[in-house]
Amino acid sequence: MYSNRFKRNVHVTRHARERMQQREIDEAQLCELLETGETRYKDQARLWIAKRSLSAPTILSVLQ
After folding, report:
1. Phi, psi values for residue 17, rounded to 5°
2. Cα–Cα distance list, 53 to 19, 21, 33, 48, 58 (Å)
3. Residue 19, φ and ψ in degrees, nearest 5
4. Which residues pair with 2 in a beta bridge?
5. What is the pLDDT of residue 16?
6. Residues 6+ apart with CB under 8 A from 58
7. pLDDT in the model for residue 35
8. Which ranges of 1-64 would DSSP assign to H, the alpha helix?
9. What is the pTM of this model?
10. H or E segment at 23?
11. What angle do CA 41, 58, 51 make, to 5 degrees?
12. Is 60:50 a contact under the CB 8 Å cutoff?
């Protein structure tokens, strides 16, 4: 998977895939989140990407 927004390859860990399954998030939704979600930086190397919905926010922790 590649993010045009961040200009880098994205590796989804086993743990992330498990959490995606629990939250019923598929790869298409993940791609959309990467490209359009709101970012919040933890530090220079890490950030979160979130997209709010009426039901619940979808949050992705990303290592830059």
Report:
1. -65, -40
2. 18, 18, 12, 16, 8
3. -65, -35
4. 9
5. 87
6. 23, 25, 29, 33, 37, 50, 51
7. 94
8. 14-22, 27-36
9. 0.70
10. none
11. 65
12. yes
Tokens of 44: 């220079």
Query: How would you class 60 by CB atoms within 10 Å of its CB: exposed for 0-12, middle for 13-18, buried for 19 or more?
Result: buried
CA distance 34 to 6: 8
Amino acid at 13: T
Residue 6 CB-density burial (10 A; 0-12 exposed, 13-18 middle, 19+ buried): middle
Ordered per-residue pLDDT tens for the chain, 64 residues: 899 998 999 888 898 899 889 988 899 999 999 999 988 888 887 888 888 765 655 556 665 4
